[in-house]
Design goal:
Elements (H helix, E strand, L loop, with lengths): L1 E5 L6 H12 L2 E4 H10 L3 H12 L5 H11 L9 E4 L5 H14 L5 E6 L2 H14 L10 H23 L4 E5 L4 H14 L1
Parallel strand pairs: 1-3, 1-4, 2-3, 4-5
Helix pairs in contact: 1-8, 2-3, 4-5, 6-7
This protein binds adenosine monophosphate.
The site of adenosine monophosphate has 17 residues, from helix 2 and helix 3.
């Protein structure tokens, strides 16, 4: 099963993707996690991404497109994958389309978690407080506001892109986590 999870920061994509990863034995591919690992390891990509991420801007498309293109070819993605945090703009969605055609892979569904923007900042600040690793560099209120603006301007149009292809499923991300998981499972049963 090949899936995309879409939704603003704090919508619960990561948590839901982890649950679905386990239940269906498919890999969660979070570009944010991969980039944070690159920053921590001080690789070339990490050095390039560090300041951009701390501000809440998007790293260049070719960087993330390259990462995903390599990653989905690895053996652990044979059974499928969940793209979490990618694509983040329409150019990335178009690059992904071309890449999948090339690799002869079809997407099964794009699942969007719709959340009231007013609750997101509170949710993320709470997550940052509770995180065992401490807050992320981009969990400051200023960077958060910026991440939400970037989402509205650049990522929200990605939902339209997939709606026009008929594979977008929008779910209510304001429900309890277990209810959201149930709704995702119901969508996945149908495909
Ligand atoms: P996330 O963990 O998904 O919230 O991502 C954290 C940060 O990593 C984002 O604010 C961006 O700076 C960067 N990032 C993650 N995924 C992408 C992507 N697909 N395109 C560009 N930048 C990304």
């Amino acid at each position: 099963m090949k899936l995309i999870f879409l939704g603003p920061p704090g919508a619960g994509k990561g948590t839901q993707a982890q649950r679905i990863e386990e239940a269906y034995d498919i890999r969660q591919l979070s570009t944010g996690d991969m980039l944070r690992a690159a920053v921590a390891a001080e690789t070339e990509i990490g050095k390039q991404a560090k300041d951009i991420m701390a501000r809440g801007d998007l790293v260049p498309d070719e960087v993330v497109v390259g990462i995903i293109s390599d990653r989905i070819e690895q053996a652990d993605c044979k059974n499928g994958f969940i793209l979490d945090g990618f694509p983040r703009n329409v150019a990335q969605a178009e690059a992904l389309d071309a890449m999948l055609v090339n690799k002869n892979i079809a997407l099964d569904a794009v699942i969007e978690l719709a959340v009231d923007p007013d609750v997101l900042i509170g949710r993320i600040l709470k997550r940052a407080e509770e995180s065992a690793d401490g807050p992320r560099a981009d969990d400051t209120e200023e960077a958060l506001q910026h991440r939400l603006r970037v989402y509205e301007e650049q990522t929200a149009p990605v939902a339209e892109f997939y709606a026009s292809k008929g594979i977008l499923k929008t779910l209510d991300g304001m429900q309890e986590m277990d209810e959201v998981t149930q709704q995702i499972n119901a969508v996945l049963k149908e495909i």
